[in-house]
Design a protein that fits this description.
Elements lengths: L5 H8 L6 E4 L3 H12 L6 E3 L9 E2 L2 E4 L1 H4 L7 E4 L4 H10 L4 E4 L1 H5 L15 H13 L1 H7 L3 E8 L26 H14 L2 E8 L9 H9 L4 E8 L8 H4 L6 E7 L7 H10 L4 E5 L2 E3 L12 H10 L6 E4 L2 E3 L2 H8 L10 E3 L7 H13 L19 E3 L14
Parallel strand pairs: 1-2, 1-5, 2-4, 5-6, 7-8, 7-13, 8-9, 9-10, 10-11
Antiparallel strand pairs: 3-4, 12-16, 13-14, 14-15
Helix pairs in contact: 8-14
Length: 407
């Protein structure tokens, strides 16, 4: 990353002839725009690779395409305000740009307290900034070979209180969904934690984790790890937590993250009330559209370059998932393999349940999966999750499990 001092950069950018562009018109772009405005600096343009945003305005600022961006002066100051710092910085350099920066220091030095944002619940701001920082530091982690993991999806059940036709975690395809075996899960978690240096977030999900009455045992296990930061429990606003599954949410490390899909999330307000009455940290996201990425495609026969591009651009390709004692690079690959819908490839996973594999060997295997993958086998069966994937109505329900092709 390109280091800078806030005071120095403010002095530099205060000049009237200095142009500022934010590359990324999403939530980090929104936060960075506020941070720059708070310093008295004007953002001239956003730039984004999403064609639907080209020519539109964000907060009164026009959104450029990349083709329009590269026509600007090469000394334009560009803050990369999305998760692809490594990739975009290389592209900017190849087009002759000299002044490009990450937004880490900018965001760290800004007070977002009591400020409402369009795309982020207040409690999610710190989490989103930490996630962004981790992505910016990815090359440094890779170079040092430190196993600093940003998050791990801990899937504790295949059962869900909804049956969404386009669930990106593929729950709609499970005919006989089951809960995770806790003995296998806990032993796998122990081996994983022993093998890493730090993890920012454990993410407890399913399906709907509240469909598993033993969810509290998992949460209690996760908060006990000293190497772990937050534990996020994801839900869809359907089941009101009670008993031990409510009590575990009161831990200071735990945040309940609820997605509200409107009419199908019929207990969303009741869940919020329970959280507020019990001083449980929570966030709510109202979601009406999804990316169309909940389908298992027939084998696509993509070229090496096509698979690499699909993998690099995917917003989920860095979301590690733990399922049935195995560590996967993304939730799609985890569930697609569990459903026998994609070929099994031992190079794409780490078997944490194998007692013959030493901790030292596990470190090597985890590093390979985390840092050394250009793509994975599942990329030939996935629609991808990037800015080109079309938007569809969220949480459309089906009464029966959907058919799919087994390999």
């Amino acid at each position: 990353m390109k280091n800078y001092n806030i005071s120095e950069i403010k002095n530099k950018l205060s000049s009237v002839d200095q142009m500022i562009v934010l590359f990324g018109a999403g939530d980090i772009g929104e936060l960075s725009n506020y941070a720059l405005t708070n310093l008295g600096l004007k953002v001239n343009f956003f730039c984004d690779n999403d064609k639907d945003k080209h020519g539109t305005e964000r907060f009164g600022v026009k959104v450029l395409s990349f083709d329009e961006l590269i026509k600007l002066k090469k000394d334009t100051n560009i803050f990369i305000s999305n998760n692809y710092y490594s990739t975009i910085s290389v592209e900017l350099k190849s087009h002759g740009f000299t002044n490009f920066y990450d937004c880490v220091e900018l965001l760290n030095k800004t007070d977002f307290t009591n400020r409402q944002f369009e795309s982020l619940h207040t409690l999610k701001i710190d989490r989103r900034i930490e996630y962004y920082k981790h992505m910016c530091l990815k090359d440094e982690y890779n170079a040092s070979r430190a196993l600093h993991i940003k998050n791990l999806d801990v899937q504790i059940t295949e059962r869900c209180s909804l049956k969404c036709t386009n669930c990106s975690n593929l729950m709609q395809f499970y005919e006989k969904p089951v809960n995770e075996d806790l003995d296998l899960l806990f032993s796998s978690l122990d081996r994983f934690v022993d093998s890493i240096d730090k993890i920012d977030e454990f993410r407890v999900l399913g399906g709907d984790p509240f469909m598993n009455k033993d969810m509290h045992k998992v949460v209690d296990k996760l908060v006990s790890y000293e190497k772990a930061g937050k534990v996020i429990v994801y839900t869809n606003g359907k089941i009101i937590p009670k008993g031990p599954n409510l009590e575990c949410l009161k831990n200071e490390k735990v945040i309940l993250d609820m997605t509200n899909y409107g009419i199908v999330s019929n207990n969303a307000q009741a869940i919020i009330k329970v959280c507020e009455e019990n001083n449980i940290k929570y966030s709510e996201s109202v979601t009406t559209v999804w990316q169309d990425c909940g389908e298992i495609l027939p084998f696509q026969k993509r070229t090496e370059e096509e698979k690499k591009r699909k993998f690099i651009d995917c917003c989920n390709s860095d979301t590690l998932s733990l399922l049935k004692g195995k560590l996967y690079r993304c939730p799609f690959s985890a569930n697609a393999e569990n459903l026998n819908a994609v070929p099994k490839n031992k190079e794409d996973q780490v078997d944490l349940s194998d007692p013959k594999v030493t901790t030292a060997d596990l470190k090597v295997k985890i590093k390979n999966v985390v840092y050394d993958k250009d793509y994975i086998t599942a990329c030939d069966f996935c629609n991808g999750r990037d800015y080109t994937v079309k938007k569809i109505k969220a949480a459309v329900q089906t009464k029966k499990p959907l058919p799919y092709v087994r390999v």
